[in-house]
Amino acid sequence: MIATARETDHWRTSIFLVLHLAYSFILTSLVTPIFRLHVGFISRNELANEWKRHDYYVITSRQTGKPIPVNELSDDEFNERFDAFEYDKTKKPF
Predict the structure, then answer these.
(1) Quick count: other Cβ atoms within 10 Å of Cβ 40?
(2) Distance CA 24, CA 50 (A)
(3) Burial letters for 59-85: b for 16+ Cβ neighbours within 10 Å, e otherwise?
(4) Spatial contact of 59 and 86, defined as CB atoms under 8 Å apart
(5) With left for phi above 0 and alpha for psi between -120 and 50, is residue 45 left, alpha or beta?
(6) How far apart are CA 94 and CA 81, in angstroms?
(7) Which segments within the chain are labelled E, that is strand?
(8) Nearest residue to 84 via CA among 41, 44, 54, 45
(9) Residue 51, CB half-sphere, CA atoms under 13 Å: how many?
């Protein structure tokens, strides 16, 4: 049986569609983490540079139980407790 031009076009269109969907899925998976970071920045009114420097992040001190700026921690404690950092909106001047 010989394939008609219409059937050949259908297969080409289907292959193109599958390739396009795969490309879109890969691109979306790469962009999503960055998008989530920036949504957080906007919701906190925070600049990426402030986030990078940890300007407004605190952690509860193990000795006193009071919040202290994360930049005052030793390097080892900073790395150990990194996942427990909390954003402190009261430290923003505006």
Answers:
(1) 12
(2) 32
(3) beeeeeeeeeebeebeeeeeeeeeeee
(4) yes
(5) left
(6) 28
(7) 57-60, 67-69, 86-87
(8) 54
(9) 12
- Cβ neighbours of residue 78 under 8 Å, at least 6 residues apart? 70
In this structure, is the dihedral angle defined by the CA atoms of residues 26, 45, 71 and 61, taken in order, positive or negative?
negative
Opening angle at CA 30, ends 28 and 33, nearest 5: 95
**What tokens were used for 87?**
């954003």
The tens digit of pLDDT for each residue in 9-24 reads 888 899 999 999 999 9
Give pLDDT tens digits along the chain (94 positions).
Answer: 555 667 678 888 999 999 999 999 999 999 999 999 999 999 999 999 999 999 999 999 989 999 999 999 999 999 999 999 999 989 888 7
Q: The pTM is what?
A: 0.68
